[in-house]
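Most newcomers find our protein records easier to grasp once they have seen one. A learned vocabulary of local backbone shapes supplies the integers on the structure line. Here is such a record, shown just as it appears in the course material:
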Amino acid sequence: MTEPLYGLQIYTVREALAEDFKGTLQRLHDLGIRHLEVFRGMPLPPEEAAAMMKDMGFTVSTGHLPMLVGDDAEAGLATAKAFGVEAYIIPWVPAENFATVEAAKAFAAQLNEGQKVAADNGMSFGYHNHEFEFTKVDGDKTGYEVVVEETNPSVLFELDTYWVQVGGLDPVELIGKLGARVPYIHIKDGPADPSDRNAHMVAFGEGNMDVPGIVRASLANNAKGIFVELDHCATDMMEAVSKSWAYLKSEGFVS
């Protein structure tokens, strides 16, 4: 069993970063967080942010960046290279890309193209889901299943387990089903209510997600990275991050 990197997708603390970038990183460091997943649009230029993170003892291996086709590809690659990203992740696309079999196949073709570009630049390549990907488009088949089937095996998937559950699936089962194609995992907690996708997320242990079960399934699947990510909370976000990291410590996942 390979020990994964546990970290934080720092989109979680985007508002705090905008107010005090270095101070926010220091607060994360004080919590014991050492691995970060970056995102496009941070308040500092990539080179400056990357140097600061390195100086403070953080590592970065993955990033949420724009599609590697079209006008944003060059900027996306430049950002990835500035941080030394190993896995280039597409964080979101409009739901229409998963609304029909034809749309899902067309999007899969884009992912295949992006994977080739990433590979040419020394990176792996993947896609991060929300909940709309799990709408059925052909009998019992979902748009997500079509994309998995239509992409080459080198296209990876960063499974956001909260949105999987909101989409009506069991994240533990899906991790097992996708196997090696899911090397990266996002963990969140909250109501996970399919009827209310906008419900606020909460600190780990305060919602309806089986966080320990999901982490254990990810470990059994030899995950490379397991990331805390909270999109929005009704409480103070840094407090929610602190409680979530403490929860992972209490469960024996991080030291």
